[in-house]
Design a protein that fits this description.
292 residues; mainly alpha; Na+/H+ antiporter like fold; 13 helices; globular
């Protein structure tokens, strides 16, 4: 029965990603407007929607953000050690797909299907922490400086601050507003999954050995560090499950966008994103069997 429950969670996620991949084979479109809709409209709406339905405790916010940060820094250290061992410290872009996991496209639907709206709300907190790190530390890795200013150009941080403040102050939005955010935010998950599949269609395997090592660090290393964090600090319950789930996700597509924009090993980054996503078809069910 546990396997059937896991399959009922995993199948819809990879099926929709697969539909995006098939769609890319027959129809060529620009993803840029879709990404803008996600970044500027639906994701901020999902943040407000999710956090308006779950009573937050400040400890939850601190625990999830702290754990996400440790996982990012820990996998970054693993990447540095690996590059030093193989003598390829010039591959700065390698850090991106290793450090920053797909805490949106895949974590959101998995958390929702496996743990319900409360699980999604915790996954949103994890995603917020990772997004802030991508648009600060991630851009610093890619271009050297300027990440902080990029972060403030996106509405995500403002939506997160507003949603968390309203939640902690126990201020309830009018039903009409909540319904609006619910409807707009609901579009996020399927659009993100289809976009991921579409983007993966154009990815090609480059630097296979390095991409495989990056995928192993991203998924295996991420899970190992997350397990160490939740064990060492006694994190349990839903927070523990979502931290482990999100930390074991493959590399995020946003890494390719950042690497392409700043011209830093984009072929290697795209290859690692594609390979880690393929590997996650097998590792994600095992991860869910472990934590559910």
């Amino acid at each position: 029965m546990a396997i059937l429950k896991v399959l009922s969670v995993v199948f819809p996620v990879f099926c929709i990603i697969g539909l995006g991949y098939i769609f890319a084979r027959f129809r060529k479109i620009s993803l840029e407007p879709i990404i803008d809709i996600l970044l500027y409209l639906t994701i901020p709406a999902l943040v407000i929607s999710s956090l308006s339905h779950k009573r937050l405790v400040i400890d939850d916010l601190a625990v999830v953000a702290f754990s996400a940060t440790i996982v990012v820094l820990g996998t970054g250290l693993m990447a540095w050690i690996y590059l030093k061992l193989i003598g390829r410290q010039d591959l700065r872009g390698f850090y991106l797909p290793v450090m920053f996991m797909n805490s949106g496209n895949m974590s959101f639907p998995l958390a929702l299907l496996a743990f319900g709206p409360e699980g999604l709300a915790v996954a949103v907190l994890y995603y917020i922490a990772i997004s802030l790190l991508v648009y600060s530390l991630g851009i610093y890795v890619a271009k050297g400086r300027g990440g902080i200013s990029e972060m403030f150009k996106l509405p995500l941080i403002y939506a997160a601050v507003i949603a968390v403040a309203l939640n902690l102050a126990e201020v309830k939005l009018p039903a009409a507003l909540i319904n609006t955010f619910d409807m707009l935010g609901a579009a996020t998950i399927p659009i993100m999954q289809v976009s991921l599949g579409y983007r993966l269609y154009s990815a090609r395997l480059a630097f296979p050995a390095i991409s495989l090592a990056g995928s192993a660090i991203r998924i295996g290393g991420g899970m190992a560090i997350a397990w160490g964090v939740v064990t060492l600090f006694g994190i349990d319950g839903l927070n523990q499950k979502i931290i482990l789930l999100s930390s074991g996700m493959p590399a995020a597509v946003i890494n390719f966008v950042v690497s392409h924009r700043y011209n830093v090993n984009s072929d290697l980054v795209a290859s690692t994103v594609a390979l880690s996503t393929f590997i996650s078809i097998f590792t994600t069910p095992l991860l869910l069997l472990w934590i559910m």
